[in-house]
Design brief:
This protein is of the alpha/beta class. Helix content is about 40%, strand content about 15%. It is built from 11 helices and 10 strands. A 5-stranded parallel sheet has the order 5-4-3-10-9. Helix 5 packs across helix 6 and helix 9 runs parallel beside helix 11. The chain starts with 8 loop residues before the first strand and ends in a 23-residue tail after the last helix.
Length: about 270
């Protein structure tokens, strides 16, 4: 994959070329999901383990079966779990699914503990509790969290491989409504900061990456676009563009205009 020579993303002991991650829910068809994943050139795919439990055996692994797991990395998630104990149990099932598709060394888990049915906001206390236990059990834990700088440092201190603060509530497409806190989280973090939830379009992704976010995880933004495959391409370019802009370093903002062609030190040609 060509990602314009952007340095790799390191999570735990794994290295990834792409800084765009995709969810697998809400697509209208399996083919749309497959096309979007291909166009995005992402390498990490997240999959709701608990949702699979409620599907019959002939359907639950359809998408898993049509993807190339030599090129993609599965990030099982505990979406739908309301308690720390439930999330811990589902995490173990997620590890089993990763092994069944051949990723024997895959210990990744996207930790979600969400008891709130209206706004789908994560439980910070239960998230920290589950994260600490799973880290002790050897999981590579990526917790979904409110944009709380103190919680982010606590999750880092118990061994999480990354933190995933929300930009705005899941599926709303409101963009970065937690901008000031995300800035603080990025400034203080010694692990990757992955913006998860709320991204509505490519400009939101650019803004997050220009702040210094390590990566973006999107689902609804692509799956519910009028053309999911085109939006996937757009997000790929946006994430790369935003990362390059962050690395380049933007010009300082000034109150007064500054001439781009200074008058001193230039020999004028006589006509």
């Amino acid at each position: 994959m060509n990602h314009d020579n952007i340095e790799p993303l390191i999570i735990g002991n794994k290295s990834f070329s792409s800084r765009l991650m995709l969810g697998t829910g809400k697509y209208r068809t399996l083919q749309e999901a497959k096309n979007s994943i291909k166009n995005s050139e992402c390498e990490i795919i997240t999959f709701a383990v608990r949702r699979a439990q409620n599907m019959n055996i002939s359907k639950q692994f359809n998408l898993l079966n049509i993807l190339d797991w030599q090129k993609l990395w599965l990030l099982p998630n505990t979406a739908g779990c309301k308690t720390a104990e439930e999330a811990i149990r589902i995490a173990s099932l997620g590890r089993q699914i990763a092994q069944e598709i051949g990723q024997i060394d895959n210990q990744f888990i996207k930790l979600e503990v969400i008891p709130d049915p209206t706004y789908l906001l994560p439980d910070p206390i239960a998230t920290l509790k589950a994260a600490e236990y799973l880290c002790q059990q050897g999981f590579t834990v990526l917790p979904y969290m409110n944009a709380d700088p103190i919680l982010a440092k606590q999750l880092e201190s118990v061994g999480c491989a990354a933190v995933m603060p929300l930009g705005s509530p899941i599926g709303t497409g409101q963009g970065l409504q937690t901008l000031s806190n995300i800035k603080i989280i990025i400034e203080n973090a010694q692990i990757p900061v992955i913006i998860d939830a709320g991204i509505g379009t490519s400009s939101d992704a650019v803004q997050a990456m220009e702040l210094g976010a390590s990566a973006i995880l999107v689902n609804t933004c692509i799956a519910r676009a009028k053309s999911s495959s085109l939006m996937a391409t757009s997000l790929k370019l946006a994430v790369n563009s935003g990362r390059l802009a962050y690395l380049a370093g933007r010009v300082d903002k000034k109150q007064k205009a500054q001439p781009s062609s200074p008058e001193t030190g230039i020999s004028m040609i006589s006509l």
